[in-house]
Design brief:
- The chain contains seven helices and five strands.
- Helix 5 crosses helix 6 and helix 6 (about 160-175) packs across helix 7.
- Helix 1 (about 15-25) links the parallel strand 1 (about 5-10) and strand 2.
- By secondary structure, the protein is α/β, with parallel strands linked by helices.
- Helices cover about 60% and strands about 15% of the residues.
- It is elongated.
């Protein structure tokens, strides 16, 4: 994605600091920049603006403000770069847990905005890719469990081998133009309804 097409939202109650970030973004070629100075109702504003990247600048954040911003980070699922003037280890860990892509302590300088934003975007994309792969792997494992369960049920009810049970499900799936997992799930559900003891 080219920088001039990326919509950036800057959340900063301090207008002077916001202008530093805005200048750094414009200098880096980010033309679509929206500044919000009031954090009240920020979740609604984010959904209205629908930015690609969010930059949050908290001059002297208290714990409640940080926690609110971390909850926001978990909810919006976008790259977030957060600038704070000071921090502690617990806040840094909380920022990572919340999915903040770049958490910068005492580093608000115009020339640093561009590399920090690029890092936030690439880190967010890397985490998103890992999460997708993890979900796919989890889904495959769950599917395998269901298919194995269905094979076991067929083997028991029909007195056939594992290979024959799988071949039967595959043939049924092809005949019905469905996936094997759908056939397996239907079989497990049906047996569970007919014989509740089987699902115990």
């Amino acid at each position: 994605m080219k920088s001039h097409t990326i919509a950036v939202l800057v959340i900063d109650e301090n207008r002077i600091r916001a202008s530093i970030i805005e200048a750094g973004l414009h200098e880096a070629g980010y033309g679509n920049v929206t500044i919000v100075h009031d954090i009240n109702g920020i979740a609604r504003k984010i959904s209205e603006i629908n930015p690609d990247v969010i930059v949050i600048d908290l001059e002297n954040p208290n714990r409640d403000m940080l926690e609110n911003m971390f909850q926001l980070s978990r909810a919006v699922k976008r790259p977030i770069a957060m600038f704070v003037d000071r921090s502690d280890e617990a806040s840094i860990e909380a920022a990572v847990d919340a999915g903040v892509s770049a958490y910068i302590v005492d580093g608000l300088k115009q020339e640093r905005v561009r590399p920090i934003l690029k890092m936030a975007i690439s880190r967010f994309n890397a985490f998103a890719r890992l999460n997708r792969e993890l979900e796919e792997t989890r889904g495959e494992l769950e599917n395998r469990k269901v298919i194995d369960r269905a094979k076991g049920l067929l083997m028991k009810s029909r007195g056939i081998s594992e290979e024959e049970a799988y071949a039967l499900m595959r043939k049924t799936a092809m005949n019905q133009n469905r996936k094997i997992i759908d056939i397996a799930q239907s079989l497990v559900t049906a047996i569970g309804l007919l014989d509740p003891g089987e699902n115990a």
